[in-house]
Design a protein that fits this description.
Number of domains of chain A: 2
Strand order of the largest sheet of chain A: 6-7-8-3-9-10
Shape of chain A: globular
CATH architecture of the largest domain in chain A: 3-Layer(aba) Sandwich
Largest sheet of chain A: 6 strands, mixed
Largest sheet of chain B: 2 strands, antiparallel
Radius of gyration of chain B: 27 Å
Shape of chain B: globular
Structural class of chain A: alpha/beta
Number of helices of chain B: 13
Helix content of chain A: 25-40%
Order of helices and strands of chain B: HHHEEHHHHHHHHHH
Helix content of chain B: 55-70%
CATH topology of the largest domain in chain A: Rossmann fold
Strand content of chain A: 15-25%
Distance between the termini of chain B: 86 Å
Number of strands of chain A: 19
Distance between the termini of chain A: 48 Å
Oligomer: heterodimer
Largest interface: A-B, 86 and 62 residues
CATH superfamily of the largest domain in chain A: P-loop containing nucleotide triphosphate hydrolases
Amino acid sequence: MIVFDDVTVTYPDATRPTLRAVEMEVREGEMCLVVGPTGSGKSTLLRCVNGLVPHFTGGTLTGRVVVDGRDTAHHPPRELADVVGYVGQAPQAGFVTDLVEDELAYAMESLGMRADVMRRRVEETLDLLGLADVRDRPLLSLSAGQQQRVAIGSVLTVQPRVLVLDEPTSALDPPAAEEVLAALTRLVHDLGLTVLVAEHRLERVVQYADAVVALTGIDAPVVSGAPADVLATTPVRPPVVELARLAQWNPVPLSVRDARRRAGDLRARLAHVTATPPGRSPGATVASARAVTAAYGDVWALRGVDLTLRAGQVSALMGRNGAGKSTVLGLLAGLHRPASGVVAVDGGVALVPQEPGDLLWAATVAAECRDADRDAAVTPGDTRALLAELAPDIDDAVHPRDLSEGQRLMLALAVMLVRRPRLVALDEPTRGLDYGAKRRLVGVLDRLAADGAAVVLATHDVELVAEVADRVVILADGEVVADGAAGDVVTASPVFAPQVAKVLAPLPVLTVEQARAALA
Amino acid sequence: MTSAPPARTRRPPRLLHPAAWWLWAVGLAVAASRTTNPLLLALLVAAVSYVVAARRQQTPWGRSFGVFLRIALVAIVIRVALFALLAPASGRHVLVHLPQVPLPHWLAGLRLGGPVAAEGLLAAAYDGLRLAVILICIGAANSLTSPRRMLKSLPAALYEAGVALTVAVAFVPQAVTAVARVRTARRLRGRTDRGVRRVRGIALPVLEGALERSVELAAAMDARGFGRRDASGATTRRLTAVLTLGGLTAILASSYGLLDAGAPGWSGLPILLAGAAAAGTGFVVGRRRGGRTRYRPDPWRAAEWVVAGCGLATAVTFAVAAPDGAGSMLDPLAWPALPVVAAVGAAVAVLPAWVAPALPRPQPARAGGVTPPRLATHARAAT
């Protein structure tokens, strides 16, 4: 269905190609997963499929990309619109209209389909993606998961043979990601659609994939094959595969279910583990909230929250979207005032918002660091030195928008941390991060806690919580419903449990590292 | 064969075609421009307000009618106040003597202050009322239709312009969110600069984000077949553009002739007809080109004809039967007469309140997914 024949892509003004000599084939009806660290050319690969590279982006493409018998060299994206449905990274940026139904019909209007066909397909797509009850709503009023499904639906209505998705769930919380993935598997299984999807959060997708294409770096060849074989060798892998490597299972299980059926032996070897390792020992109280309420107009975001954050500890705020996590962080950082109750913070607060890029507005990394030195009134050069510690490989002359997600987060952190805050708050720090960047973030958080800062994360990412948090606070509907040691809270409910804990339950082992330490 | 007639004819609710509402409103505006008779103008306002109350949508623009009413009131007040201050005394019933400011001789035609006569004041009020009613008619069209649906029913010849407008309109709410985010970020970083630097510091990231978004949008539109299969040649395309734009310009120009009673006769109706013919040809030629189709276009049925016809009928009755000048009411001062034909015309204007189909029930707002309004930002209460 999709054939890449010796494809090399070089963008204008680039000194080296982004993709080099890629050979791969995706067969009809397959769901193929593209994995690789940020900057390895995943998006470029996907954009080659419908001809956006090079027709839209510029640059040169050598070799051949053939989709359903059409060579993209001779067919610009609009001529491939009936064969390839492409959904980019930020679906809301690609919306042309402002209502759900109109958005679904847009591509069909462009292709000049008959009115009765359009009407029928819109109805079918609304049902297929579970959007029927939001059909006449404005797009901006939808949740992120609904928006993503509308974006998928808007290319599905022309009934393409191939669906190309660039990180469809990276920016979503787990339930929304489940919605989107459920819709996708339905498309693959019921409609026989060929799907090519790039994704960071492998643990969510890999069990549904028929094939995996791994881009490991510009000089390494592209590896493609069955998911278990490819993931056994690539450096990018979900926790369950990591655990399989530790236990030397072969073939590698890809889902919690498969792993659990193999894990009897491993559970026996780990039976001596009776408790999770104790968290870091808490220091003095840095911030506290007492019976805090907050409201947005008539909507009460917090209804009496008590919270104490101590030096040297990492706390995680969890809970569904709208539970009040971001509001708590905003209160701590002094962005909002509570409706009642008291928020007390001892020392400076650094809050890194969900979109770390919001904090950055200079034209280069170097200028950004100079601005931060001035804003914080510290010795010139401090921010740059701090950044070098957090992320050694960032070039001074790059525009902050051209950095990878992980690098941008590190730059934002450096800008905020140079004030030496006593409380560091991060809102959804792992959105869009690959495994490498996540590991680096864990290292930074570890060091911050060791240096005596209180760290608080608002996150959906249970794997991150399992690795780094000492304490977990679960919010629901503006109230605290659970507050305790991370190991206890996280293993108490299967919804909030990390993959390793699910595989090894009822043993209190949360991460591969803990399992490795216990085996040694 | 037997067929049971329906007990009572009922039609499902739907939205009337926006063009029908606009034609109705423009007809009423033309009618209003033809008279200064306060009774007729008041009848028109009553008719328009009743229709709006009966058939407006529960949307932000649907609620904008009140704003237009207020603007209209301000127009009257300004007109009267300016007259009282500036116009030369006219009429015998002097109400009040304002202190007169002597002006230099080269402003001999003007006068500031002095006696204010009832006749002049009333003439100004009637004149202001006429302008106010025209404004109210436009406001009514605005609150009865959504600008988005109007854009959607643009003829194919204007499709590209429509897309550009849609995208531009969508930019506004996004820019508002973006500004809020940048301001939050600036507070987090402790930025305190003011004036030009501050505006620059907020505007640059917002514009940068908008630019980035527009590139993404262009890619998405390209990938979804925008601009595909335009079968017609360059000549047809140019012909369509010239006919459409030329025709629309002529229609706009003719509105001057129609609204201003003093303009020469050829500048009104003839130009309007010529312009409409040119634009119509452009639309027909444009429809044949390109392979685009339209999803669920707004239908144009009997109700649309009737609503547009009501507007036209009102305009015609006023043009024929309404007294043009205000002289008969002012010299001598008299209670204005009510011309029967025009009054019937004003009554016709209210018919759409029943003729137009009922509105679909608004969707109840559902919980979840709706972005909460921002918290009022204040300094931290306690540290």
